[in-house]
Amino acid sequence: MLDPCIEIIDERFRQLVHGNVHMDKLWTGGRWCEGPAYLPAGKYLIWSDIPNDRVMRWDECSGEVTEFEAPARNQNGHTVDAFGRLVSCEHRGRCVSRIEFDGTRTILADQYHGKRLNSPNDVVVKSDGSIWFTDPTYGIDSHYEGDKSEPEQDGSYVYRIDPDGTVTKVVDDMVKPNGLAFSVDESLLYVCDTGRSHVPGTEPAIRAYDVSEAGTTVSGGRELCVCDAGAFDGFRVDRSGNLWTSAADGVHCYTPSGGLLGKIHTPEVVANLCFGGVKKNRLFICGTTSIYAIYVNAQGAT
Ligand code: MG
Question: What is the whole-number distance in angstroms between the Cα of residue 193 and the centre of ligand 1?
Answer without folding.
Answer: 10
